[in-house]
Design brief:
It contains eleven helices and 13 strands. By secondary structure, the protein is α/β, with parallel strands linked by helices. The strands form four sheets. Strands 1-7-6-4-5 form a five-stranded mixed β-sheet, with helices on both faces. Strands 8-13-12-11 form a four-stranded mixed β-sheet. Strands 2-3 form a two-stranded antiparallel sheet. The chain binds coenzyme A (COA).
């Protein structure tokens, strides 16, 4: 059975920074309160021309470059996102088109902030089963578009960004070792984005009631999160036949420093073993774990042979953890230039649209 290795990684965040002081001009809050209660100092906010797919493509191109993999080698693209661009088409298909990944199947995965762990597990299982060899897994978000900037309970928490991993099959040991996924829909009302689906299609009344904004019971979500972080980590370790002492790093969902501290206490691990960067990005939902990973890898914190666990929780309720051994890129020859595929992808996409238009005209004439 082949193993699924993380061979490429990349992240992309908008340039625009919103500090806690900037927020205090929008709602009654202050830097001290936000830092003490959450650990967050600032977050990134997408410009009007930045979308979930464009951030994802920027992150993906960087990941493909590191892995030295062409977009046309991809067989699967999974985009975990809580903020898709449309209900359909899937954001993963927009990414597929922009990358020029002509041989890839593509779908979105919605498990809220646990989405990246779910998606990584799904792609790893596809590789381990032998059905595919190369996959792209992305967590990408533009949460700023769904935040109520007048609600100080939620607007202080979230930010925008994307992170991407390339996964490849290899017989060498390591890569993804185990994963666990959980859900409890009875807590679905604790964190919701009610309008825009088939139950509450957006209309004047959903709009005036603010149902198109994120709504959250912060205290209950906090209580749930502190309960599941350590237990899910332990479960993933048990499934991989590892002990807490065997892992070098825990990469937690970056929601609130106090939740991460509770997980550290639960696992009896020092905070130095946790990768934390939420002070600079806030909670970027599905993107938070890959962004934290990418920064840690680029700082040289994660070395070959290191074992680590990624652990997350989110709306649904969902939670999960994934244990892996870091192995880095698979040695390969030459240098691919994925950004050229992006440029060509634009032309290819346009040509396909023109052909489809002409075919449509001919087909109608035949009728
Ligand atoms: N700025 C200043 N004061 C604020 C505030 C803000 N942004 N938000 C709330 N307050 C006030 C409250 O009104 C309350 O005042 P009161 O005591 O006079 O009533 C006080 O601060 C405490 O509020 P509380 O809601 O109890 O704060 P908290 O310690 O529970 O922190 C959260 C609130 C949202 C930061 C915290 O509950 C949390 O992080 N929950 C998890 C959320 C999460 O991670 N969601 C994403 C999941 S993927």
């Amino acid at each position: 059975m082949p193993n699924a290795h993380i061979t490429g990684w990349g992240m992309a965040v908008p340039e625009k920074i919103m500090t806690n002081n900037d927020l205090s001009e929008l709602v009654e809050t202050n830097d001290e309160w936000i830092r003490e209660r959450t650990g967050i100092r600032e977050r990134r906010i997408a410009r009007e021309t930045e979308f979930t797919s464009t951030l994802a493509v920027d992150a993906a191109i960087r990941a493909l470059k590191v892995a030295n993999v062409r977009p046309t080698d991809l067989e699967l693209i999974v985009c975990a996102t809580s903020t898709p661009e449309y209900l359909f088409p899937a954001t993963a298909c927009l990414i597929q088109d922009q990358l020029g990944a002509t041989k890839a199947g593509a779908f979105d995965l919605l498990a809220a902030c646990s989405g990246f762990i779910y998606a990584l597990n799904m792609a790893a299982q596809s590789i381990r089963s032998g059905s595919i060899k190369t996959a792209l897994v992305i967590g990408s978000e533009t949460l700023s578009r769904f935040v109520n900037w007048k609600d100080r309970n939620t607007c202080i928490l979230f930010g925008d960004g994307a992170g991407a991993f390339v996964l490849q099959a290899s017989e060498r040991p390591g890569g993804v070792l185990s994963a666990v996924m959980h859900s409890d829909g009875s807590g679905g009302d604790l964190l919701t984005l009610p309008a825009g689906g088939s139950r509450y299609p957006i209309n004047e009344s959903t709009y005036s009631e603010g149902k198109h904004h994120i709504q959250m019971d912060g205290k209950e979500v906090f209580r749930f999160a502190t309960r599941v972080m350590a237990s899910a980590t332990q479960e993933a370790l048990d499934a991989a036949g590892l002990k807490v002492e065997d892992i070098r790093w825990v990469v937690p969902h970056q929601a609130n420093i106090r939740i991460i501290e509770a997980a550290a206490r639960g696992l009896k691990l020092p905070m130095e073993r946790f990768i934390v960067n939420l002070d600079r990005y806030g909670n970027t939902s599905t993107a938070s774990i890959p962004i934290a990973m990418v920064e840690a890898i680029e700082k040289g914190q994660i070395a070959n042979g290191d074992k680590f666990v990624m652990v997350g929780f989110g709306a649904g309720l969902t939670w999960g953890a994934l244990a892996a051994e870091w192995t880095g890129p698979i040695p390969s020859k030459g240098h691919v230039h994925p950004e050229q595929y992006r440029r060509l992808g634009r032309v290819r996409s346009l040509v396909r649209r023109v052909i489809r238009f002409i075919e449509g005209l001919l087909y109608r004439r035949e009728l």
